[in-house]
Amino acid sequence: MLNWDDYNEDAQEAAPAPEVVKAAAQAQSPQMTESAPTADSAPAAPTPAAPDASTVPAGVELSDAELLEGLKELTMSGERVRAADKRMINGSSDVNQVVPLKYDWAWQKYLDGSQNHWMPQEINMTADLALWKSQDGLTDDERRIIKFGLGYFSTADTVVANNLLLSIYKHITAPEARFYIGLQFREELIHAHAYQYCIESLGMDDGEIWNMYREQPSVAAKAAWSLKHTEVINRPDFKTGTPETDKEFLKNLMSYYIGAEGIFFYCGFAAILSMGRQNKMAGVAEQFQYILRDESMHLNFGVDLINQIKAENPHLWDEEMQAHAIRIIREAVLLEVEFAKDMLPRGVLGMNAKLFEEYLQFIGSRRCSQLGLAPQWPNAQNPFPWMSEIMDLRKEKNFFETKVTEYQQSGALSWD
């Protein structure tokens, strides 16, 4: 998994998953050598004659024209699906048929993610409420961390979910990837539910917290930046299929998977999880621990998705696109540094804005490497190596010692 490298200073350069490279090779060289027919190379089975209105049961209003149009939509290429014919975008094979599999890495991520289910109400928030209500339980700076964390994330995951459902899903033509995107959409809603549950459990002013993305400048800037990268592909007439539109779609994927989920989330997570390490607001921190595990999976999928599209469409990854990817990463780091300064105007919990700046540069360089780009901050180090320990959810007893858990149905992911 790519996650561990984010917190390992000696990590090697990230490379696309073997399945990504294999699938790309199949896409670029569908005819290898003349050998015994395989599932991909065998001639397509003849398509049965299309039914007509005479085959429709009496009482059902379905004309020949309507039947033909429906079949056209379902059959697409008019042949049975072959794995070699699938493409991540601009494919012509039937998107309703997941087999035969081509993108095993996407399907495996769907299977792994399906085993990791949790609900916010499973986490006891009683101690958090008592601490939050206590006059001397938390400092003003610690309260600010909780407010800013919940203020940004409460709407950020909804923005991401909307982008998945309204912008990304319909342009992906590989059913295996669509399965995972559907799973990710559900998880984003669970995360938004978790933030709402924290806000409600603590008796916070929900109007203040939910409207931070409108009223708090550093939060509003991140939200506006994300929404900016959705404008073009949300237009009713937008379709992939040309180099220009395919590049716009790739830019959207990079801004959300690399910028938002790969950079924007890290300051808020680290600050709140640091409080959990000191047994403060342990229920909120446990919610964030589960969310971080999910988001790391989303990031892994997004990196592989982008690299798969690059491999199948190498003409898209020209100098202009590489420069744009670097710009996305650098802008996301700058915006998140400003958020860190706003969230932590003074040092607290062994953290300060300067440490977060180096941390974000470290993360930003990792994102560059994952896309095959030169690190922009090659000398940046990870000042928070304890984050890797927090992400280890295989322990019998979780890090905050609030409940015994194996995160498999509360989770089965291997972090190796």
In short:
With 416 residues, the chain is an all-alpha fold.
Describe the structure.
By secondary structure, the protein is mainly alpha-helical. The protein has helices at residues 3-6, 18-28, 64-75, 104-114, 126-133, 140-168, 175-201, 206-210, 212-215, 217-228, 243-264, 266-277, 282-312, 319-343, 353-370, 387-390, 408-411. Helix 11 (243-264) packs antiparallel against helix 13 (282-312) and helix 11 (243-264) packs parallel to helix 14. Residues 1-15, 25-39 and 393-416 have low confidence and may be disordered.
**Mean pLDDT, as a whole number?**
82
Which structural class should the secondary elements be placed in?
mainly alpha
The helix/strand order is: HHHHHHHHHHHHHHHHH
Number of distinct beta strands: 0
Q: What gross morphology would you assign?
A: globular
Low confidence ranges: 1-15, 25-39, 393-416
The share of residues in helices is: 55-70%
Taking all Cα atoms into account, the compactness measure Rg is 23 Å
Question: Beta-strand percentage?
Answer: under 5%
If helices are DSSP runs of H or I spanning 4 or more residues, what is the number of helices? 17
**What does the main sheet amount to?**
none
The end-to-end distance, rounded to whole angstroms, is 6 Å
Oligomer: single chain
